[in-house]
Amino acid sequence: xxxxxxxxxxxxxxxxxxxxxxxxxxxxxxxxxxxxxxxxxxxxxxxxxxxxxxxxxxxxxxxxxxxxxxxxxxxxxxxxxxxxxxxxxxxxxxxxxxxxxxxxxxxxxxxxxxxxxxxxxxxxxxxxxxxxxxxxxxxxxxxxxxxxxxxxxxxxxxxxxxxxxxxxxxxxxxxxxxxxxxxxxxxxxxxxxxxxxxxxxxxxxxxxxxxxxxxxxxxxxxxxxxxxxxxxxxxxxxxxxxxxxxxxxxxxxxxxxxxxxxxxxxxxxxxxxxxxxxxxxxxxxxxxxxxxxxxxxxxxxxxxxxxxxxxxxxxxxxxxxxxxxxxxxxxxxxxxxxxxxxxxxxxxxxxxxxxxxxxxxxxxxxxxxxxxxxxxxxxxxxxxxxxxxxx
Length: 391
Ligand code: FES
Fold this sequence. Notes:
Blueprint: E1 24-30, H1 37-48, H2 59-80, H3 87-105, E2 112-118, H4 125-134, E3 139-144, H5 151-167, E4 175-179, H6 186-200, E5 212-218, H7 222-226, H8 231-245, E6 252-257, H9 270-279, E7 284-289, H10 297-313, E8 318-321, H11 329-344
Parallel strand pairs: 1-2, 1-3, 3-4, 5-6, 5-7, 7-8
Helix pairs in contact: 1-2, 3-11, 6-8, 6-11, 9-10
The protein binds FE2/S2 (inorganic) cluster (FES).
């Protein structure tokens, strides 16, 4: 964790609204992470009680039980990576750089201000909404920080956003549009390709051509995949686009990590793939986290400590990780470009947003409250739809 990382007041993003022009808000949606050991328990409890993330039988009882049982183990892991999750720190850095670029490349929608809404850790969605209201925001873009769509991640964050807006009586406060996925945006792909090149530079030159690229994404419960979730196809699309950008310079595989036993999760598991690669006597493996945009416990602990140890055990001589995007300026520019294109366009959300998973039974999914009609979508078009039926 960076030295300068200290927990600070939720939702404060380093900007004060002083000018007469209402800012365009960019609400950065992400999972979040505990900043201190004491935050781990509440964080896990929020996660395991959320049916939209991990559907469990007897959610309330089993969720609390799993959270309680895992807390000491996860606290130890955070202690090994500096005491807490750096995701708040990195999201702030990304947001600060993003709005700086945005003010330059999209002056017509300036000033831009970013807000952070984490799903399971401070700052929570309500904190961000209160701050937006206090800052006089009218136009708001909900910008998922998960490049690839999943109903468990982006979908759950958006559902929480609509619930909180209604709970707080803020339905008329903001006009919304969504950036709900960006798995193959060229600027994101360019930034990812750059990180892989940095990763490859860690290998001895004589070995570099024989490196196998092992893309690793967070896994999903199989029950979510079988509902028709878009995540596997969007992760694969990112991998394919990155490899195309690299002109298919190396062999590559895609695997999934962080599954929670004893449930069935999407595979192949990264751990099992590392074992197989060892058995095949692969000497050089570069693991590439492909579904998160900053360091977190899955990169800093699961990959850098647990998988690195496993790789040593199974005889992989050079096991390295591509650096996370974190505050790479190429990535900040990519974020700004994605938002600028969205603000210039006339779409409230992606073509896929309104398409529910075939197995969906959640009436909250794919809602859009208070659409920003002034961006060119007529009444009666999808722009005007998506009103929450329960509202
Ligand atoms: Fe995918 Fe509801 S679970 S749309």
